[in-house]
Amino acid sequence: MGARRIQIAVIGASRPTPRGYQLAYEAGQLLASRGTVVLCGGLGGVMEAACRGAHEAGGLAIGIVPGDRGDANPWADAVISPGMGYGRNWAIVSSADGVLAVEGQLGTLSELCLAAQLGLPLAGLSTWSMSELPIHHSETPEAAVSWLMGVLNG
């Protein structure tokens, strides 16, 4: 049996800017091209963009939705509905080896805080910046993905 694939949670705005959507799409593509599984909240916005990018690059995108599986975006290759509502944020980050945040509101902040408590590496593109959160901010998806993969591959 082979080694388990790295799983990166891509989190962020449900209503991103056009730039945020593009950043998440490119991040999904880049992660998939490196054989990484993309995890996300499974709905629209950044979640949809990351799933679409991963799916179109031949990767695996898993959406962990707060409600019915039918609510998932069409690019999620697999959908999990833990029946926890927005408590699914815990399921997303606790299933990840690292986190990449793109823009985002309070839901994204909650996921970042949970991931920080777990000691996961955090990368960010146009997202929250707080001294309490050890987020590695990058200007491009390439830089963010390269940093995460470098940390995770030692």
Question: What does the secondary structure layout of this molecule look like, with pairings?
Answer:
Layout: E1 7-12, H1 18-33, E2 37-40, H2 46-56, E3 61-64, E4 78-80, H3 88-94, E5 98-102, H4 106-117, E6 122-125, E7 135-137, H5 141-152
Parallel strand pairs: 1-2, 1-5, 2-3, 3-4, 5-6, 6-7
Helix pairs in contact: 1-2, 1-5, 3-4
Entry summary:
The protein has 154 residues and is an alpha/beta fold.
What does this 3D model show about the protein?
This protein is α/β, with parallel strands linked by helices and 154 residues long. The protein has one domain: 3-Layer(aba) Sandwich (Rossmann fold), CATH 3.40.50.450. It has 5 helices and 7 strands, in the order βαβαββαβαββα. It has a 7-stranded parallel beta sheet with strand order 4-3-2-1-5-6-7, sandwiched between helices. Strand 2, helix 2 and strand 3 form a beta-alpha-beta unit. Helix 1 runs parallel beside helix 2, helix 1 runs parallel beside helix 5 and helix 3 packs across helix 4. The longest helix is centred in the first third of the chain and has 16 residues. It is globular and about 35 Å long.
